[in-house]
Design a protein that fits this description.
The chain has 9 helices and 22 strands. Helix 1 packs parallel to helix 9, helix 2 runs antiparallel to helix 3 and helix 7 runs parallel beside helix 8. It folds into 3 domains: 61 residues, OB fold (Dihydrolipoamide Acetyltransferase, E2P) (Beta Barrel); 198 residues, Rossmann fold (3-Layer(aba) Sandwich), CATH 3.40.50.150; 142 residues, OB fold (Dihydrolipoamide Acetyltransferase, E2P). Helices cover 25% and strands 30% of the residues. The longest helix has 19 residues. Strands 9-8-7-10-11-12-13 form a 7-stranded mixed sheet. The chain has a 7-stranded mixed sheet with strand order 18-17-16-19-20-22-21, with helices on both faces. Strands 1-5-6-4-3-2 form a 6-stranded mixed sheet, with no helix packed on it. The protein is an alpha/beta fold.
Length: 451
């Protein structure tokens, strides 16, 4: 087998990245855009020792669950890996992904994992869009999304899972760059000015935020850009530059320069207002966020008498949900701007039984427990994709809260951490997949652990 070979393959399953999987002898072949049950003709892209990647050339036998995509770039863009799969089948696929990881790790459950809770909306649900900016092979400035397994940009201003206003905002920025001959960023030479266009939308208020990520401390003719944006798109409440001069593919920098507005937009979930700044983490599917947090609240089992720790708390979204039903909530977060936002959000909602602490949870919590004698009745963790820090896991084991609610964006690290907890006498009682990212292979999971 070599690149450009054409293969006829039967697809058995779906891989971690959403590619269809076929076995050809001892070689596993990953075929982009192919679905289980299909026979396809595929062109080999690259070959390794035990696996190969290929792209779909032709469908010989079509899956009964294949549907027409709502995007003309779905087979090139790396964003929506399974948009051509019926949504109910997507939910089954995601549940199975959680089941497989937990079984592989040897996690013992009291009950079978229920079906994935589907998203209320499966298009135009994303409240945040990130458009990389570059020049194409013809020297034209383009913005869009990365192609699968590459940093090649698929030029597209429109995205069916994003907000309707995104395409108009991107067009204004690209026209501005062309008009003033402002160079986009070039990864190879680490030169050029504009790296990304980041757009956020508050669904409850329709407020929009535009942040231009720049490889500089300024943007030429920035006042003219502000005027163009405000005159072209309604409800833009904040425009800023995010400075990122590092030679890295990391998107955001640490310095924000506000060009227009107050530095934030405001969204509302279940009556709680949240101020969102350019560097804040906020769940990308606003309508589904309430569903996720309602499940967290249910599993926390609060009566109003508990002390709760919310670790990796971000801008305090979960903390403020919990505070309405707890005696005290302590939120811990490493990002200074997120902590500042969290404190403002608490004040904005007149919630005074919550404290936010800046720092690493794995450093803050051991100090609170060992030196200040603090004990939590309920601990909630919502860590990054890599899962919880080992020191933090050890501290939770020693602290022995009555309940641990684990919110995870990666079932692999969730399974690892649940197994560690299980090996130390804690018991996983319940696991619920919640779909926050329709048309992708990503899945959010909420688990209840009893100490």
């Amino acid at each position: 087998m070599k690149p450009n070979d054409i293969l006829t393959l039967d697809i058995q399953s779906v891989g971690e990245d959403g590619d269809g999987i076929s076995k050809l002898g001892k070689t596993t072949v990953y075929v982009s855009n192919a679905l289980p049950g299909e026979r396809v003709s595929a062109v080999v892209d690259d070959v390794a020792k035990s696996y190969a990647h290929a792209h779909l050339q032709r469908i010989i036998r079509c899956s009964q669950h294949r549907v027409r995509a709502n995007c003309q770039y779905v087979r090139q863009c790396g964003g929506c890996q399974v948009q051509e799969l019926d949504y109910n089948e997507q939910l089954l696929l995601k549940r199975q992904k959680v089941v497989d990881y937990l079984q592989s790790a040897g996690v013992v459950l009291d009950r079978e994992i229920p079906g994935t809770i589907g998203s209320r909306t499966i298009f135009n649900f994303r409240n945040k869009a990130i458009y990389p900016v570059a020049k194409n092979i013809d020297g034209e400035i383009v913005a869009g999304f990365y192609a699968r397994r590459s940093h090649q940009i698929i030029s597209s201003k429109e995205c069916p899972v994003g907000a309707d206003e995104n395409s108009k905002i991107v067009a204004v920025v690209i026209n501005h760059l062309n008009h003033y001959n402002i160079e986009p960023y070039d990864e190879a030479t680490h030169s050029g000015t504009v790296r990304y266009i980041v757009i956020r939308k508050a669904f409850a208020t329709d407020e929009l935020m535009v942040s231009i990520v720049v490889n500089d401390n300024d943007l030429p003719h920035r006042n003219e850009l502000v005027e163009r944006l405000l005159s072209s798109v309604k409800n833009i409440k904040d425009i800023s530059l995010t400075v990122n001069c590092d030679n890295t593919n990391r998107i955001r920098g640490n310095e924000v320069v506000t060009l227009y507005g107050n530095g934030y937009i405001t969204d509302i979930i279940d009556g709680i207002k949240f101020r969102i700044s350019p560097l804040s983490f906020f769940q990308v599917n606003t309508p589904q966020t309430k569903v996720l947090y309602d499940k967290v609240l249910e599993l926390a089992g609060l009566t109003g008498e508990e002390t709760v720790m919310d670790l990796y708390c971000g801008v305090g979204t979960i903390s403020l949900f919990l505070a309405r039903n707890a005696r005290k909530v302590i939120g811990v977060e490493t990002i200074p701007q997120a902590v500042a936002d969290a404190k403002q959000n608490a004040a904005l909602n007149h919630i005074d039984n919550v404290d936010f602490i800046e720092g690493k949870a794995e450093e803050i919590i051991p100090d609170l427990v060992q030196h200040q004698g603090l004990k939590a009745d309920v601990v909630v963790v919502d860590p990054p994709r890599k899962g919880c820090d080992k020191v933090l896991i050890d501290t939770i084991i020693k602290m022995r809260p009555s309940r641990l609610v684990y919110v995870s964006c990666d079932p692999k690290s969730l399974a690892r951490d649940l197994r560690i907890l299980q090996d130390n006498g804690l018991k996983t009682k319940y696991v619920q997949p919640v779909d926050m990212f329709p048309h992708t292979v990503h899945i959010e999971t909420v688990a209840l652990v009893i100490c």
